[in-house]
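Question (not urgent): is this output format expected?
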Amino acid sequence: MAQYYEGVGRRKSATARVRIVNGSGSFVINEKALEDYFPTEKNNKTVTEPLDVLDTNRADYDISVLVRGGGVIGQADSVRLGLARAILKMDPEMRSALSRGGFLSRDAREKERKKPGLKGARKAPTYTKR
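Got this back:
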């Protein structure tokens, strides 16, 4: 089997496992093409941002992704982080360029839990005097 480089990305409750292999330029997410899995241009751009940092042609690599949990935007962000980490394992000299773009930092914001006696995480029921 060919040598591959793997990176794991997380965002909210989404987790993505990204593998990069030398190949023909296919980008597969959960056994679907990138354009089929993320049909919007914004999410497509988010996912492929770390590839723009690479000096070489994107068509030289096959990228396969397994992503689970979360929503569409959380999944797109988790794939971006996983892809950046896989690129870093493939070529450690890309660290400065990836860091400058902000691709190596995990967005740690999570949904805050609901507290007892409140309507949500922070919203309190309306106060009535009488």
